[in-house]
Design a protein that fits this description.
This protein has 511 residues and is an alpha+beta fold. It has three domains: 31 residues, no CATH class; 295 residues, SGNH hydrolase (Rossmann fold, 3-Layer(aba) Sandwich), CATH 3.40.50.1110; 165 residues, Jelly Rolls (Sandwich), CATH 2.60.120. 27% of the residues lie in helices and 23% in strands. It is built from 14 helices and 20 strands. A five-stranded parallel sheet has the order 15-3-16-17-20, with helices on both faces. The chain has a five-stranded antiparallel sheet with strand order 5-8-13-10-11, with no helix packed on it. α10 links the parallel β16 and β17. α10 packs parallel to α11. About 6% of the residues have low confidence.
Length: 511
């Protein structure tokens, strides 16, 4: 092709592109509900859009976080310090209910009225924790925003440092993803995990999912709901494949990514049940056999406990059975103080409690001595863009009502969703429904006398996520949805400050 023809072709292509930029609708052409065809406009060429960024310098500068080295190098309390030593976790917690010094509060907790009383029931327990001869438990439920112990880890460390307690609390028998925090886990055998949220396995014909909303098994679930006429077409082994001996194991070991109090524990509790045959279990601590026992056939859940003089670096549980129990999780804990469980539920909108066996859940909360639930959801509702989220408000409100009904002693507080961005052209902007979902969560919380902490506003509000993503070092992931570990630490510190501010307010009011 001659240079003249190349020039003519190039100019023709540019002219067509220019013509398209003039005549193409500025809002694009909607192809489907989820896809719109767009083309760059003349205005975009002359004045390209600039990324809107919120100034978060005051938020970050006003919220100091510990450096990474502090994860393993936590200073031991001085002998004269009246606060309990988190390293030894004695039977009793020696703590004086005194105001706790906190940094500046970026975003205060909101309440349904001006009395600030929604957390008083839990604060009363916290201020009297020195007289508690058992663990006081906080369960932090959330979506993928809290996976890998994010946000929970710092909150746990601060409360255990001030009120006593050790251990990471509840960990599932089988993790959905290979996260290394708060504990490292590995398994052998044919394990499968079943959850009450997300896409439920239709073979599960019950709703005994336990306090973590999931259970794990190392033998298949037998579908006993087949009609007799159909059962005759199968032989016994085809119908009940678990009537063979199965072997499996679970390893739980210390994680290098956890705060030191989380690495210490004095006992381990296993929550299990509904096995149709006896189960042999061998337990090893640092490769030494410490227990060998049999879990009998059961039509309910049970708790098996192991105690330790010193914290083992590694625990191993070996199972041998024809039928696996449903294993709901392990609790690694001390004998007193605070335990805070990280319960990440990727893909969940927090609407699963009413799908569970409520009698079972109520008993578990009572046996765990759960006094506070923190529910952090909303992000998974964002992709489903609607004009109104009244349906979500009603559904979430129903969860709160149900929880308060089955566990009247529980205090519940809600943490809202973070800012989330979508790409428009070359810039990132807040999804238009984020404030609507935030309002739905807040209204549901207030309808049920629950406190609410607005994470969206705490991080800067509209279009703040790009500022977290482009910060140096980054505080948000490149999906413009999740925080980096460092960013999550800032969020956790802001929430802790707001929480302890209200606790100090309670102590002053009590006096």
């Amino acid at each position: 092709m001659t240079p003249k023809k190349v020039l003519i072709f190039t100019l023709s292509a540019l002219f067509i592109l220019l013509l398209l930029s003039v005549i193409f609708p500025s809002k694009g052409i909607k192809i489907t509900d989820s896809f719109t065809l767009k083309f760059i406009t003349i205005d975009d060429l002359i004045n390209p859009p600039k990324q809107t960024k919120v100034d978060i310098s005051d938020i970050i500068n006003g919220t100091d976080i510990p450096e990474d080295k502090d994860i393993v190098n936590i200073q031991k309390p001085k002998k004269k310090d009246p606060v309990d030593s988190v390293m030894i976790d004695s039977q009793y917690v020696y703590y004086k209910p005194m105001p706790v010094k906190i940094d500046s509060v970026v975003r205060y907790i909101e309440f349904p009225d001006n009395s600030h009383s929604s957390l008083d029931k839990f604060f009363a327990v916290l201020s009297n924790i020195k007289n508690q001869k058992k663990i006081v438990r906080i369960m932090h439920y959330g979506d993928s925003q809290i996976e890998t112990d994010r946000i929970t880890d710092y909150f746990r460390y601060k409360l255990q440092s001030q009120f006593g307690g050790v251990g990471p609390g509840l960990v599932p028998a089988l993790k959905a993803f290979d996260f290394k925090s708060p504990m490292i886990q590995s398994v052998s055998g044919e394990w499968k995990r079943y959850t009450v949220y997300g896409r439920r396995d239709t073979i599960v014909k019950h709703n005994h999912y336990g306090m973590l909303g999931n259970f794990a098994r190392f033998t298949p679930i037998v579908n006993d709901t087949l009609p007799d006429s159909l059962k005759t077409t199968f032989n016994q082994e085809e119908l009940m494949p678990h009537k063979l001996m199965h072997y499996a194991s679970i390893d739980i070991s210390e994680s290098p990514y956890s705060f030191r109090p989380s690495k210490q524990f004095k006992r381990c509790k296993m929550y299990y049940g509904y096995n149709q045959t006896d189960v042999k279990i061998k337990t090893y601590a640092d490769e030494q056999l410490i227990d060998e026992s049999v879990l009998p056939v059961s039509d309910d859940y049970h708790i098996k406990t192991w105690n330790f003089e010193t914290t083992p670096k590694n625990l191993k549980f070996e199972f041998e059975a024809e039928d696996s129990p449903d294993i709901y999780g392990f609790s690694l804990e001390g004998y007193s103080g605070i335990n805070i469980d990280n319960i990440g539920m990727r893909g969940s909108g927090g609407l699963f409690f009413t799908k569970m066996d409520l009698n079972m859940l109520s008993r578990m909360y009572q046996q765990l001595n759960t006094k506070l639930l923190i529910l952090q959801f909303g992000g998974n509702t964002v992709p489903n863009v609607r004009e109104s989220y009244n349906y979500y408000r009603k559904a979430f409100s129903r969860q709160l009502r149900t929880l308060k009904k089955i566990a009247p002693d529980l205090t519940i507080m809600v943490i809202g969703l973070a800012d989330m961005s979508k790409k428009e052209g070359d810039t990132y902007v807040t999804y238009p429904n984020v404030p609507l979902i935030r309002d739905a969560l807040k209204q549901a919380s207030f309808e049920n006398n629950c406190a609410y902490w607005d994470m969206y506003e705490a991080m800067g509000g509209e279009n703040s996520m790009p500022s977290w993503v482009f910060y140096d070092p980054p505080l948000g992931e490149k999906d413009f949805t999740h925080f980096t570990p460092r960013g999550a630490r800032y969020i956790a510190k802001m929430f802790y400050n707001a929480f302890m501010y209200e606790y100090n307010r309670y102590l002053k009011k009590k006096k």
